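tmp note - Lipoprotein signal peptidase
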Amino acid sequence: MLGALAAAFVIADQVSKALVRATQAQGGFPVEVLPGVVGFEYVENRGAAFGLGEGFGFVFVLLAVVMVAASVVYLVRAPRVSRLEVVGLGMVCGGAIGNAIDRVALGYVTDFITTRFMSFPSLNIADIGVTVGVVIALIGFIFLSPANEKERSDGR
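out:
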């Protein structure tokens, strides 16, 4: 399940970014999706979140590799995990791989989803996978993990 979900996020991320780059080449941006709320705008992000860390792309690729490896090791070694942990980690891995592909192939990450109602950095499908995936995995680990069943039943 981890591999399939990660692959789905990588595919969705890479297809959306390819479409964005093709649209940019034709001068098709910016686009208002929900006026005043969200739009699409082509951005070449050479850093990480909020554009920080410009010039350290190799470090972010290395972190993606470590994140995927750590997720796989955790899922293999944990005696029992909740389905939400697997889903969340699959999203995180897919997002990490999606952005790593951009960094290696292009030297930057293609971002395109922008908020219009507040000042917030542009993002992409991979960023959503990482962010939402972490939250889902933590909820699964803290509240639903079968490994924590005994502690919950003991009242601890």
